[in-house]
Amino acid sequence: MSIASSCASLPPVQSDYAPKGKITKVNGLDVYWAIPDSFAEAKTKNAVIICYDIFGFHENVKQLCDILASQGFLVALPDYLQGNYWTTEKFKNEGHQLKEWLDENAPPEKCLQFTTPVVKQLREEHKVQNIGYAGLCWGAMIGVKHCKDPAFDACILIHPSMLTTEDFKNCQCPVAFLPSKNEPDLETQFVKDPVLTSKPFASKIVHRRFDLHHGFVGARGNFKDSANVEAVNEVISISVNFLNENLGVKY
């Protein structure tokens, strides 16, 4: 699965959202934390690590984190790109080089290394018991790479790009596919592929295709547009149900 053409052409939107979380350093890496109000009293503590799209710490993604936190999840958003985000200027000059840029600035193995201390902090400092992973666009590919690790109980792929069947061979947890209209037929390409249908969690796999543009949940989403907001709310609802059903379950 290649990068969606819109991924290298659609710019991010402007947002006036005021994030509710905080940014701290974890092993030298900035991490945005969205913490549920009930976290201190919670007995079963569930967390989600999110990988953003190529535009990095955008307010739309932080808002997604905050909403998930309002549903009882401790959310960590690592700054995998370390502040070096894709820009509108790069669209003009380097749009055809997006994959090369990602390979140079945030190769999967580097992202995996960044995640390790975040998981450690979730376990040791926050006493988290169960962890899921969610990725947007390019971040979905990073999510699949993480899900060969038994530390993760669920993986959510939101308008994903750069996926391959090979990536799912070692996946050990249920996956939710939430593509936009710009992605190929992921149900045929992945959900119905024997690589996933043979997994013990095959019945837990979710697929829902949305009739919106690539990036509608992330930095390209217009959260003032009713259709966009309705779709984002459905993505969140599916994600919350998916996490609640699968966190803490091992296969």
In short:
The chain is of the alpha/beta class. Helices cover 35% and strands 17% of the residues.
Describe how the helices and strands are arranged.
Blueprint: E1 22-26, E2 29-34, E3 46-51, H1 59-70, E4 73-78, H2 88-94, H3 98-105, H4 108-124, E5 130-136, H5 138-146, E6 152-158, H6 165-168, E7 175-178, H7 186-191, H8 194-197, E8 206-207, H9 226-246
Structure characterization notes:
By secondary structure, the protein is of the alpha/beta class. The protein has one domain: Rossmann fold (3-Layer(aba) Sandwich), CATH 3.40.50. 35% of the residues lie in helices and 17% in strands. Helix 1 links the parallel strand 3 and strand 4. It is globular and about 45 Å long. About 2% of the residues have low confidence.
Sequence of strands across the biggest β-sheet:
1-2-4-3-5-6-7-8
What is the element string, with H for helices and E for strands?
EEEHEHHHEHEHEHHEH
The CATH architecture: 3-Layer(aba) Sandwich
Oligomer: single chain
Q: Main beta sheet: strand number and arrangement?
A: 8 strands, mixed
As a whole number of angstroms, the C-alpha radius of gyration is: 17 Å
Q: Which fold name fills CATH's third level, the topology?
A: Rossmann fold
Q: How many DSSP helices?
A: 9
Q: Which CATH class?
A: Alpha Beta
Query: By CATH's scheme, which homologous superfamily applies?
Result: Alpha/Beta hydrolase fold, catalytic domain
Poorly predicted sequence stretches spanning 5 or more consecutive residues: 5-9
Could you tell me the number of beta strands?
8
Mean pLDDT: 91
Shape: globular
InterPro entries: AB_hydrolase_fold, Dienelactn_hydro
GO molecular function: hydrolase activity
Keywords: Hydrolase
Pfam family, one: DLH
